Amino acid sequence: MSRRSGILEFAVLGLLRESPMHGYELRKRLNTSLGVFRAFSYGTLYPCLKALVANGWLIEETGDAPEGAPAAALTGRRAKIVYRLTASGKEHFEELLAHSGPDAWEDEHFGVRFAFFGQTSRDVRMRVLEGRRSRLEERLERMRTSLARTRERLDDYTLELQRHGMESVEREVRWLNELIESERAGRDQRAPGSAEQGKKDQSGDTGGLPRHRGGSRPDPSDDTTT
User: Fold this and answer.
1) pTM (2 decimals)?
2) Which of helix, strand or coil describes residue 169?
3) Residues 6+ apart with CB under 8 A from 6
4) Which of 62, 100, 137, 179 is 20 to 30 A from residue 53's alpha carbon, by CA?
């Protein structure tokens, strides 16, 4: 499975965990809620859905066509199928949520993973955030080294573009620092060993996101940091 199809599978399972959806509605949510999927087609989505059904992670049910769907999307049986997460599909998605390895820190994957942080345990959130920050700090160091080495050979516009890229990475690092600080503060504010705390950690309780302190938060799905 390619990395692209793997993150699509993760996103589809995560959205269907919230509620069953028609293919049209699911594609609309992927387009509007998860920026990395802004430009993808039914030709990409339906093979993914069929594979998830074949694996037993989704089931297909017949239902009414979603309100507002374009006429072209409503022809044939496909438009009337509702996709529902199975028990094994939910279990598989929870396994994916628990993953915090290097691929979860990459640009495309991080944006989608972050979108489902509300369903992710605190410890996994921390590992993903810290991994993402480490990855960006390494990238920033490489960019600074490269700029120092080539500055004299760059024209003003290329130099400005390089600076813009560095500022974008620096801005995301500051944002990650705020998130990590907030996660740690939320954990420290709760009594250790509390039964209620254990339940909240398992359910993905956020402990409160940091208050915005000026400027614009970077969109985790924004590819300007590549």
Assistant:
1) 0.73
2) helix
3) none
4) 100
- With respect to residue 208, please indicate whether it lies within any of the assigned structural domains: yes
Contact 131, 105 (CB under 8 A): yes
Domain range spanning residue 80? 3-97
Query: By the 8 A CB rule, do 34 and 11 touch?
Result: yes
- pLDDT digit string, tens, across residues 174-215: 999 999 999 998 765 544 443 444 444 444 555 555 544 444
The tokens describing 143, both together, are 């960019």
- Residue 110 located in a structural domain: no
Amino acid at 107: D
7 and 65 together in one domain: yes
Q: Alpha helix locations (H) across 116-225?
A: 122-150, 156-188, 195-203
Provide the domain count of the chain.
2
Is residue 201 within 8 Å of residue 145, measured between CB atoms?
no
